[in-house]
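S1.2 Input.
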Amino acid sequence: MTDIGGSVIGGLASVSIIFLWLITFHKRFFVSLWKTSKVTGYGVYTNFGEALTSHFWFLFKGLFVQPDRAALEKEVSSKFVQLLGETRSEKTVITHSCRSIFYYVIKTLLDDAKERTGESRIKIALPSVHFGSFYRLLRGMEKSIECKIDFYEVDLKEEDWTLDDRDIDEAEFAKCDLVLCQHLFGVPFGQDKLFELGRKHNIPILEDCVQSGSLFSNYKGNPLSDMIMYSGGLDKTPQSFGGGFGYFRDTPNGNKLYKKCSDFHNKLPLDTWKGRFVGCFNQLIHVMIARNTFGFNSLIGLLAYVWVSDRGDYIKWYAISLKIRKAKAITPFQHAESGFLRKPTTYQLQSMLYAFTKDYEAIARTELSNRDYLLKNIPSEYHLKLFPWWTPKVLKLHKDNLGISEFSWVFAPKGEQRMDLCQFLNDHFFICMINTTWEYHEFTKKPVGKDINNNLVYLPNIGELKKPEILRLSKTLTKYAKSLEIGVEKVKKA
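S1.3 Output.
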């Protein structure tokens, strides 16, 4: 009995020592795991259960019943045109992803340039803030098909991030082969000058509406564009676990590009059941992260502490978020050309139709309400320091457009302060991440666009935050803005 009693006491003592060691040396880990809001920067408009009963259900059902693919594609095309408020469904291309449409257009223009000049080289006019996926795709094309793609960039104004029309040299602009009009931050971006000059000089205009507030917003593309495209990716609306929707207007450039792009598309192989399944599975992992399904982010927090954090310190959520975002093994997007240069399967077409039937207005209104609440609880003198693009005009445009922004950002001061902001938010128990949505040309001479890309930080998605969390985030950002003022004052005194 004495031996047994001694063993029990020894065991309890050992457990107590281990427990005391855990809560002392690793106290910050437990505090961070408990107090951090498990809301990420992802804008994902589905959940685990819905994904299983829709996108995965179409895959399972497809093993036994195969609908008519041509009829299904026609139905998707007609519904897309109806949502656009257009009438000619024969001018659409429904693809595996939005980057597929972008690739078709660029490849067509490169082939035309080769035929015309003997060199596969084109120049694209666009704002100095580029959509990262498309920019990286262009760089990949240069390596895979031996071409050269140049940029004519138009910078943004530093004070409010609107397009700086004064930066346009019309003679140089006229030498471009494509005008790429991209929207920023979930609202239609004011770039009328690009549309007007493109039409004036007969340059094809491709309008990327992915960040204009979604296909379900009130904005349906500029009438001067020759082509418009939307995405059905994981973090887009319509949320169809992938898909690209392209509409070509009845203009000389639109008709010419439609013919060549649709011919290119029709010659591609059909995606496979396995390819669609792997794509859906990878996206489901990111849905679980966005929704913290089954407490999934607590497991990620543990992994972050073991692999990327300093022992005894808070979990570095922002570091693990970036690693996951860039992990090619579980990427929700197809980056390899062989992955997205395929025609969508019947399972994917069914997912697109399903996504078209969803009502996204409630999501848009929640985002509007939460944005107002966030700003209401931050002193007005800090608004444009933290959110330079949220001018009164843009905030009104959010309301009028009734769109969805997909992501929420905050702007760190110039210099090497982006990681300081990430650490500050991390220490105040919010999950953030450095910008990966936007990119800039590595040889750019446009300082404002470069600063924007280098200093943006993802906040937790404001559409997913609860009011108490938004209030806490507002106080945290206010505290950060005040700390910057104190820092500047100390420098002045020194």
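S1.4 Remarks. Residues 49-266 form a domain with the Aspartate Aminotransferase; domain 2 fold (CATH 3.40.640.10).
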